Amino acid sequence: MSDTTHDLLPRQLADAHLDALVELQPLIGTYLGIPGTADRLPDLSPTGLEALADLNRETLRRLDAAETLPGAGDDAERRCARLLRERLTADLAIHDAGERLREINNLFSPVHDIRQAFTLMPLASEEDWSSVARRLKAVPAALEGYRSSLATGLERGLLAAERQVRTVVDQLGEWVGEGSDGGWFADFVAKGPDSLRVELDESAAAAGAAVAALRDWLRDTYAPRATGVPDAVGRERYARWVRQWNGTDLDLDEAYAYGWAEYHRLLAEMRKEAARILPGAGPWEALRHLDSHGDAVEGVEEVRDWLQQLMDEAIEALDGTHFDLAPEVRRVESMIAPPGSAAAPYYTGPSLDFSRPGRTWLPTMGETRFPVYDLVSTWYHEGVPGHHLQLAQWVYVADRLSRYQTTMGMVSANAEGWALYAERLMDELGFLTDPQRRLGYLDCQMMRAVRVIIDIGMHLELEIPADSGFHPGERWTPELAREFFGAHSSRSAEFVDSELVRYLGMPGQAIGYKLGERVWLRGREAARAAHGESFDAKAWHMAALSLGSLGLDDLEEELSAL
């Protein structure tokens, strides 16, 4: 960051920080659709990690000065400054503790970020494909940097848990394929132009070989050292990650109790709804019945089209009545996730110029039949009115806030909390009166309550309450968590296993859905109480979606004041 930033207000400083961050992390540029970044990859070595930390420290130093300038007390400047300071401080705490030197998980590790970047690149022209080839050629050096960081972690005794390592080894094996199978990178470039065929095939082969080499090193060198490394991270590390993912310092014991309270509330509702579907059956017996006998979509392309139609119908129903959506925000695409993904659906936001729309992604996990009850509420979460309306609206108002607030400053619990709130909103608005769809919605809500219980419970090894009806008085282990999750979810055993690995590898992330929803509900009720009969839910929703990112502490305060 140049010295010319010494007189910038917080929003200007935040964007200067983002520009500098993109130079160090060109994958962010791809995500945002910034020209000139599509053919590069970041330095994932310890040197590269330290460069990112230095940038954060320098921006914090400059923020001290920025907050003293005339105009810095403006609400927009104040919100941006609070977010920037909170995010950079949280990230430095993670860096300084060496957490980036053992960053191995099944969803958001650096190697996953690299592969996902290719799925977001433009592919319309020969020059686009030439950028793909150049980026593929950069994969070996990027992965060697990542391996170097993990090796430094080994030297310092900072290791990922064995379960994480073995899961990622299996994932990477699926990416590279076996025998005559060219693997994911070869499949990806197969649709490129004939004029670049040799270059694309050679660069894809080099990228695949680099992934295979990383897989082999993790399996043969790292995994034996990780044998016996516990899954639970303990209270100190867990609190650090909670701040990173949620933007708050939680009372973890109160949050654990809240998870149990929501579990009991939802269980009572689910029992009532199950009786409407299969009299005398419990919730998960009714859901298993729906797996075989309920409404379903047959075929992978058919389910992609069905999900697109579901989102299009939601936009038509909500725009002008409960939201005011810009034309750019009304566009969202349904996609099928590439093989080797984690089991959970996900969303990727639009580029800053909206040339690439927001997209929802469904991992099929080899299935070709998709029960409707399991999809509707999930796509209200991932698509409309969930992630897409919030994150696309942030991009739409980026010029009024800052690009940092609407992109890389995102706090996971803010976004996930909104998406879970969006599911509940669709229930409140009467979109889930069909028993199948409503039981599916309650099942999704239950999964988020269970996440709070087992994520905190496993990592802190807490005691299971006496009134739980499940191994009372014992302390949580991954094995007990798997049993509890499996008994209180309609999901497959494969999905449950993938989710547990995710929770163990990303401590504190999974609790943000339910705890974030609680903040959105509290903020709405406080605003409703303040305005009385004049409260306008549509206006509140649009003002709330236009705040940009905030941590949970700041979010509740700002939502309440709207």
How would you explain this protein's 3D organization?
- This protein folds into two domains: 227 residues, no CATH class; 273 residues, no CATH class.
- The protein is globular, with a radius of gyration of 23 Å.
- The strands form two sheets. Strands 2-4-3 form a three-stranded mixed β-sheet.
- The mean pLDDT is 95.
- The protein is built from 22 helices and five strands.
- It is 62% helix and 3% strand.
- It is mainly α and 562 residues long.
- InterPro entries: DUF885 (IPR010281).
- It comes from Streptomyces alkaliphilus.
- This is DUF885 family protein.
List strands and helices in order, with pairings.
Blueprint: H1 10-24, H2 26-32, H3 46-66, H4 75-96, H5 110-120, H6 126-156, H7 162-176, H8 183-189, H9 197-226, H10 234-246, H11 252-277, H12 283-293, E1 296-298, H13 300-318, E2 332-336, E3 346-348, E4 358-362, E5 369-371, H14 376-382, H15 387-396, H16 412-428, H17 435-460, H18 478-487, H19 493-505, H20 512-531, H21 537-545, H22 552-561
Parallel strand pairs: 2-4
Antiparallel strand pairs: 1-5, 3-4
Helix pairs in contact: 1-2, 1-3, 3-4, 4-10, 5-6, 6-9, 7-9, 8-9, 11-12, 11-17, 14-16, 16-20, 17-18, 17-20, 18-19, 20-22
